[in-house]
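Hi all, long-time lurker, first post. I run a small reading group and we've been trying to get comfortable going from sequence to structure in the token notation. Rather than ask abstract questions, I figured I'd post a concrete chain and ask someone more experienced to write out its structure so we can walk through it together at our next meeting. Sequence below, copied exactly:
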Amino acid sequence: MDLCGKREDMALQGGDSCLTPRASRGGCEMESRWAEGLLEGGGRKRRAPEESEDDVQEMDEVDCGGKRSKPPSPQPHTPDIREAHAPGRRRTAAAGGGGDLIGEIGWDLSINCLLRLSRSEYGSVASLNRDFRSLVRFGEIYRLRRQNNISEHWVYFSCNVLEWDAYDPYRERWMTVPKMPPDECFMCSDKESLAVGTELLVFGMAHIVFRYSILTNSWTRGEVMNSPRCLFGSASVGEKAYVAGGTDSLGRILSSAELYNSETHTWTPLPSMNRARKNCSGVFMDGKFYVIGGVTNNNMILTCGEEYDVQSKSWRVIENMSGGLNGVSGAPPLISVVKNELYAADYSEKDVKKYDKHNNKWITLGKLPERSVSMNGWGLAFRACGERLIVIGGPRTSVGGMIELNSWVPDDKPPVWNLIARRQSGNFVYNCAVMGC
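-- Answer (accepted) --
Happy to help. Here is the structure in token form:
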């Protein structure tokens, strides 16, 4: 369940960690008032001993007045999340602040209420007591959200080397991500990015991966693939990410594929595709991983796609799946999936298309936003963001330009794009990823 527009239509039932359609408003209103009171009454006043506000900020947030809060510092030991469910830990919560609120309705219902909050509030939640801080700090709150099919999608993108920004479309605000550590690998080489779980991964050609975690609001060195690559196709689902194809540091085009688990920070080899390809794109749809388009040796364009069945662990070629969506000198196919339907941005004609699964063909729905400017597709981002499509790009001039975010909820009618945000930028969009958690 995407929180945008959906939270008001669901209610929590009893103490179970599951969501059910709302039967009556009384219980849900009580939970909502409790959650709001938890933050307003204790959010920024009660704090566990030896915990400062620096410890709980998820990100360097910029409010409407331009003020920025401090990024967090590395944390000392915090209680294991399993201890939080023990009776002794509940008593400790009272000493840490907020325990009286937990005592009124119980731990399980408290957690259910917290799951319904926007994740932008979790910095305040973590400041209430050590148990809540443990839930947020170790990512347990996000695992519970996944189990209950609750998510918010934030857009992360880079318009400058080593610099990333984030945009929260639910609260319509920009956030500054800490700057990436300097490395010459990212100064002049192609780099790739993907968001998985609570992490943003950025890949360089020379066996370098940097990992940004929203749990710590910091960058660290990430685990390298078994076969490092760039220009690959990728897709994420929950805490897992799939990558396939691409090219290695010697320029060889790859058919290999790998699976990344953000919980264990491990890469696992998968069976190789039938065709080696680079400059391709990936999506996850109907429980399967698709790699679409790209080029193979001698710059031969591939119009076929490949489908990876995660159950049978096998690949299937789908002929002519990307016909007309890519060229040799252009960007990889700009594709995204919303509600298990595949959409594409045809950057040459500025069209939005939908894939007809049954007839294996693309149907033109309408146009991209008028000011979505690109150079053969480069500099334009086309992403799924919950139940809507997002186009990120904008007009360029000799003295700079504008980054604009336009959104549309697909409905099989001609797209009507809504401008949801814009800001000045000296460059176009280098990399973009959407994190849903």
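A couple of things your group might point at:
The chain has a mean pLDDT of 79.
The longest strand covers residues 400-408.
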